[in-house]
Structures are given as structure tokens and as C-alpha cells.
């Protein structure tokens, strides 16, 4: 299953049967390094600081830091067991409310969607005994793999200051966060992990945001343990899997696991089942479609796995392996890892990319007729086969596709034939967005062939059919998403045209599109023009996808521009006045606000922690 944020379901709890186990210490000793030794002043302040007491409303034993509501879903079994058996109080820091994700249950988007997702997160996490979720009110935008782009939209220093303040006020001994590594992972996930790692060490440093100490009256706080999610061992099942000492094959850091099969006294079922019950509450993300029951056989239940980044307040050391010839995204991550004193996090961060496919887009003397059919001579170039990329494996009769391209003058034409055995949801035209929720085609174009993220690209999602609503005929619709400019195609690419033909009885469809090259963010480089063509297949009526295909299927094929193939534009020369530097991207920054959330306001009154991690009143002012 693919969730409604556009992420593959393998990243969410669809593969996590729900984890839990005793929050025991590390197996064996680990060596620590990287964090500077505490100064004499810090040691005196630490010694003078009274131990945190659990009855204090702001205190949390464990703090989980993430980007979106639902990011904690795969670890709720662990947090629930820790709470039930050891009395550990876990809080959640969620940087955004997921306003940029899809919605499988209604038309809401932006801030209204964020409020729905807050309600879902609070209901789901309550099953694990979690009372408090601290939202930082940063905007969630479209699915990107870029931490630097996310950093810019989130105003990184402001977000970091808020996070450090929360650490100092909640005084956790353990911080759990997401994986900061860049490949095949949401930029928001990466950035939330980076910020959590920095805040872990900065919260105990009197030099970090000193105004919080001198003005707001807070004290330094140094958490003891720092864990990050690790998906590398998710296929290991059964209660014995976490008993072995394990090391992450890339970073070299120790890894600990917590099995999901322990029984909950309160719920009367395994924590794996409790976690599944909780996950199905994230309805906007399509997770209500998850199977309601997890396996009864203990040997089929998995574990939560975490890399140990720090112990006793200091970084765990691992060998450093340098990679050469890094692409910009990976070079930037290595520079960050070095700067924070954890260079081993960048070990093997850049994957061994397969050779990208290539083709030639022929020029045609007569423009193709846009009718959802291939006419004689309209597409004389090679037929491109789309292959399985993500989700369920499908037979050719279930879902398969080919694509062709041609060019006439300054217009690119794309024809995609899709074999499909079952029709997905027919969305209404006003809801023709977030195309991965149902049957659709995506065409991704990087005009210069050198983009590091999709903000410099043109990406369109095309629905072959929509729901007749009295105002239209239920024909095709197109949008732009996660690119230089987003929204309905008639507004964001007014020269673009689409057509489709749908089989009757339904056996699939054909989508045909005309995309003026002048609609792209920059002039098309005829020798480096980069393309990916993707198909999303839904076999259900619940606005969830099952199978994805792509011409170049590797990693996050829709978002990783390094994956896209080259499509040489035969005989093309762009107009001399067309800019070669991409236009500045338009990125939505609407965010739901904690002040508009009754639950967040009540929580702030209960804990004394300001809304969105904002500043406390300056003492004496």
C-alpha cells in the first residue's frame, strides 16, 4: 500500500507489525566521542540542578522528534510498552501538522487538513499512553528528498531554537528521532532528525541560545541517550531477533531492537495489535485500509530497531568511510555530519545509482492530434517500457504500461498506454490533486538535467478520468505537484493540454499530453533534458494506491532527479531569450497554528510549555 503523503507504504507501519519490548540498556559497552567535554560552569550547573521528577507536568522521560503526524506510528508499540511496564512518559515533537500530504477522507488541504491530522495523531498515540504532542507550527509542503530545501522553508535556526527550548523544558533522558540520512527519504524526515541531533547536544550547552537561560530562566539539560530509527533490520521477525548484538552495516553504529509481540495488560492483546489499531486511525493518509489484524504467530511479528547515536550524553564513535565523487545532496549531508561531530553518519550515504535510461525524442512534421490515441506517424520514436517501482508487484494484466514521446516545434507530446484490470476512485475535478491516490500518470521533466531537487522541475499528474458532477463530463484532468509551481494545470501551465481514452469494458486507458517547453521553469537543454514517466495504480475505492511503475525505477523515482533518464530532443534549439536559470519556485507555506487548536491550548496550560515551543516571558521584564 502507498500512503496519502506520496510515500511508499514500506516506510510506514504497513510493514511494521507494531513493536514493543522492555526499554533495556545497550547490549555491551559502546565508546563515545564527538560531544565536547562539559565546561566547569556546566558541571556546576548540572550538579546544582535537582533531578527531574515525574510528577512535574513538563517532564517527559522520552521525547520522540519527527516531521509529520504519523511518523511515530511505527514505534507506538515500543512507547506503549515502556509506558506500561516501566512507567516511562513519552512526548512527541511534531515539526509540522502534515498540511502538504494527501487526504483520503475528504477535500480538506492546507491548515484544515493539518487540524484533522492533529486529531488523528492525538487519538492514535493515546493508545500508547502518550498525552502530549508539541507542534512547532512549521509548514509542511510537498514530498521532497531535499533537507536543504526543507531547512529553508522551516527557517532552520528558529526551529532549532524552539526544539532546544522544548528539550530544556521537558528534560528527557532519551531522545528518539528519525533517520537523518538522505537517500530515498522525505526531506522533512531528514531535517527533523538533523535538528533533533543538534538539539540533543546543544540543550546542555550554556553557549547555545543563552537568552533561554539568562532571560527565560531555563537551565541547561543534557539528555543521556539518542536513538534514530533504523529500517535495515525490519525483515527480522520473532522474539529472538532483538537478542543478538547488531551493528548497522552502513554507519557502523550499534543497533538495538524491541520486539512487538509482548502482551499489553491494559489492552489485552499484543502491542503489535495495539499499534495496528492506532495506525488505522490515521485515516487521512489512507491507513484505515490496512488489514485490521496482525499475525497471531509470535514468529511473524517484527521489532522496532534503533541506531544508538549517543549514550551517557556523548556521541557513540564509529569508523569513518569516505566516499568520493559525491553528488551535491550527499556532499551537503557529509558536510553537516562532519560539522556536528558525527562523520560516520555519512558512511555510504550515496547509493550506487544504476545507469539511468536514455532515449531520443524525435521531431515530427505534423503535431499529434490530442485524442488519447496513437495516430500514424505521431510517435515514431522508441516505445519505453515502464517497470515496477514501488508497492505491490503486479502481473502485466493487472498493471503494465509503455510510453512514447515526440516533439513538434516548441511542444513536447507524451503518450502513455496503461493496461489495468481494475479502476480506482474517480475523483471530482475540483479534487483532482495528489494524484498518487488513484489511477494516474505522472510526467516529470528537468529542463536543464542538473537539478538536485524537484523545485527546479516541471511535474504533472494526469487523471485519465474524473467523476461526472453535473459541471463536467468526467473527462481527464491535470495538475502540477511537488515542482516549481503547483496547482491545477489550467492555472499553472495554461498552454498544456491533455486527452484520454478509457476502455469499455474497463481494461485500462491511454493518456496523451501536450506540454509547451515554454511552460518549464527554464529553457530545455536538448542534450541533457531529463525525464521520468510514472504510473500510479489503485485497485480500490478508498483513495489509496497499490502499485507504482516508472521508466527509471530506483529509490524515490518521482522525487530523485538523479534517477531520471535523459531524453535527447532531436533537432531542438530553445528560443534565445528563454532563461537558462530556473525560475524561483513557488512553495506553499500555509501552516496550521497551535493557537487555533483547543487540544494544543489545553496542553500548554497543563504543562506550562508555550505553544509551538515559543519563548517564555523574560523574567524581570
Structure description:
- Helix content is 19%, strand content 20%.
- The protein is α+β, with helices and mostly antiparallel strands and 621 residues long.
- About 7% of the residues have low confidence.
Give a short account of the largest sheet.
13 strands, mixed
Rg measurement, Å: 25 Å
Helix count, DSSP H or I runs of 4 or more residues: 11
Average pLDDT score: 91
Structural class: alpha+beta
Low-confidence segments, given as residue ranges, are 8-52
Q: Helicity level, as a percent range? A: 10-25%
Overall shape: it is: globular
Strand content: 15-25%
Oligomer: single chain
Gap between N and C termini, in Å? 54 Å
Count of distinct strands: 22
Question: What's the short story on this structure?
Answer:
With about 625 residues, this protein is of the alpha+beta class.
What is the topological layout?
Layout: H1 40-48, E1 62-66, H2 76-86, E2 90-94, H3 110-126, E3 133-135, H4 147-154, H5 156-170, E4 174-177, H6 187-202, H7 211-214, E5 225-229, E6 246-247, E7 254-259, H8 271-279, E8 303-311, E9 314-315, H9 328-339, E10 358-361, E11 384-391, E12 399-408, E13 411-420, E14 440-446, E15 458-463, E16 477-480, E17 487-488, H10 489-492, E18 497-502, E19 508-516, E20 530-537, E21 547-550, E22 565-569, H11 598-607
Helix pairs in contact: 2-8, 4-6, 5-6
Index terms:
9-stranded mixed sheet, PIG-L family deacetylase, 621 residues, 11 helices, alpha+beta, globular, 13-stranded mixed sheet, single chain, 22 strands, LmbE-like_dom_sf
